[in-house]
Write a structure and sequence with these properties.
541 residues, 21% strand, alpha+beta
Length: 541
């Protein structure tokens, strides 16, 4: 019976979570583009949550959903106008239902603090609506959020993923064909010739590659649900900051590995909050600057070869370069000799903020630093461009999947290490006079200085080095550095494995993989290696 209830709770959590997410999205759309279909979708969601919660004995959830139903029923039957305050109250109810759902899953099934107060306000709202006349449904107040044309179900809970049945059918078919190929290969190996065995092996290899690609496609999900979460963030934050803002979404159907969706959630939240708080001006400031009173944020996704690109742009005040120059002086730098790009890079330094004061939203200098670290953990990069008085665009580039990479293998001592091939620019031989010397240095590469460090010293590999050493030139985010290694083994596809707890904080290492020899190879963290090379060069000056 306990097992049955656990299965029921898992199903209830997933379905109710999806319904609450859809209700939230429809309420945001209702505020700007009211229609009967949207009202009915919210009503159906509340009704379904109420029934499911009641069936499982979660009476507090059922009570809130029931009173929300009452409010929506009055609005729908009498075709009443919808105000910002009423939408805010219904959104607060969705938030409480979501909190109670999480509590119910861990055994806290009672009402939350403020439960009775919320019920009283909902009942008062329902009573007030019943006293109104019957005009057509229309939004109240200025338009502050751009609605999304189409609302989809989003927000997977736990480690679950909804998969198209056709994809599963294709995987099952390929699995059957592989089983047949395996049987054929066994027969040919016992009775056939070498040529026949190679032919069967090539066929099995082709099927295996198709199966791998199909499994990777199963992991691909659209970014739309992730993007739509920020409609609520912009709405609530704009009201807190007494600003008007709308969020436009583009490329919602672009697909990416589901693990990347989880990894992008935190950096996108920081970017959206920074854009509203730092980027957008107040309505009066925007009017004085000749702009529309309501600011616009655009969140866009598109594919580049092998990569997902996510851009967040705003039409706000842009970066304040005078303040960045002041911060640069405080750090002991010479801002007069710095380029615009170097000044913009300061935004990503930990602890640096250009805000006038610390608020609940920002001002502590941790937002953009977190964004860069989070994106680099996804093997991606962040770039920023800004025009003072016109706005800022932040671009995130991440690989389409975190499960595999094209790797470039190098050797140090008896060990083999893997570098992401996308970060490898070229390879060259270390000058003979520098071979065997300890420490790093700077090479002259076609007239440009190239700082380098020795992988042997970074990872503490013992033993004498070879007479001949090689330099792998690495590039990431506009920076370049060399990595001195003993041997170059070449490129190949690698399946990434996470590091154990003991090795997660080893500098310069991001993961592991199983090599063709069956041994474990460490995957190197290129951004960290580049920063180490730059620090080493700066310290040597």
């Amino acid at each position: 019976m306990d097992l049955d209830r656990e299965q029921l709770l898992a199903t209830f959590a997933e379905e109710s979570g999806e319904l609450l997410t859809e209700m939230e999205q429809q309420l945001l759309a209702l505020e700007t583009h009211p229609d009967e279909e949207g009202l009915m979708a919210i009503f159906r969601g509340a009704h379904t949550v109420k029934g499911a919660a009641g069936a499982l004995g979660f009476s507090a959830m059922a009570d809130v959903a029931h009173v929300v139903e009452d409010v929506l029923e009055v609005v729908q039957e009498r075709r009443l106008p919808v105000s910002d305050e009423q939408v805010s109250l219904l959104l607060e109810s969705v938030d409480q239902l979501r909190e109670m759902l999480q509590g119910a899953l861990v055994g806290r099934e009672g009402p939350l603090e403020g439960h009775e107060s919320l019920l009283e306000r909902l009942r008062a709202c329902s009573a007030a609506l019943r006293q109104q006349a019957r005009p057509s449904v229309s939004p109240a107040g200025p338009v502050e959020e751009a609605g999304v044309e189409e609302s989809h179900t989003g927000g997977r809970r736990g480690r679950t993923l909804r998969v198209d049945l056709e994809k599963l059918d294709r995987i099952a078919t390929l699995t059957g064909e592989l089983a047949i190929a395996r049987t054929r290969l066994a027969q040919v190996l016992s009775t056939g010739t070498v040529e026949e065995a190679l032919e069967v092996h090539r066929e099995a290899d082709r099927l295996h590659e198709e199966l791998r690609e199909e499994v990777m496609r199963v992991r691909m999900v659209p970014v739309g649900p992730l993007f739509r979460q920020h409609l609520r963030t912009v709405r609530d934050l704009a009201r807190t900051e007494r600003k008007w803002a709308r969020l436009a979404l583009k490329g919602e159907d672009v697909e990416v590995d589901t693990a990347l969706v989880d990894g992008l959630r935190e950096p996108l939240l920081h970017l959206v909050r920074n854009a509203v708080d730092h980027g957008l001006e107040t309505p009066d400031e925007r009017r004085a600057a000749g702009k529309e009173a309501c600011g616009t944020l655009v969140l866009r996704a598109f594919h580049e070869p092998g990569s997902l690109v996510v851009e967040l742009s705003d039409d706000g005040r842009g970066l304040r370069y005078d303040r960045l120059r002041e911060k640069a002086r405080g750090l002991g730098l010479e801002p007069e000799r710095m380029t615009v790009e170097e000044l913009e890079e300061l935004v990503f330094l930990p602890g640096l903020s250009t805000a006038d004061a610390v608020t609940e939203v920002s001002g502590r200098g941790v937002g953009m630093d977190v964004v860069r670290r989070s994106v680099e953990m996804l093997r991606g990069m962040v770039t920023l461009r800004s025009e003072e008085g016109r706005g800022t665009t932040v671009t995130l580039r991440v690989p389409l999947t975190l499960a595999t990479i094209q790797g470039f293998s190098v050797g140090v001592g008896e060990e083999t290490y893997v570098l992401p091939l996308e970060a490898v620019r070229e390879c060259l031989e270390l000058p003979a006079e520098r071979c065997g010397q300890p420490g790093g240095g700077v090479l002259n590469l076609r007239g440009r200085s190239l700082p380098y460090l020795r992988l042997r010293e970074v990872l503490g590999v013992e033993g004498p080095g070879p007479a001949r050493e090689n330099v792998v030139v690495l590039g990431h985010g506009g920076g370049r550095a060399g990595l001195v290694v003993d041997a170059l083994h070449g490129e190949g596809q690698c399946v990434l494995k996470p590091l154990g707890r003991l090795f997660r904080h080893v500098p310069g290492v991001s993961g592991s993989t199983i090599l063709g020899s069956g041994r474990v190879g460490l995957v190197l963290d290129v951004p960290t290696l580049l920063r180490m090379a730059v620090r080493q060069r700066t310290a040597a000056r």
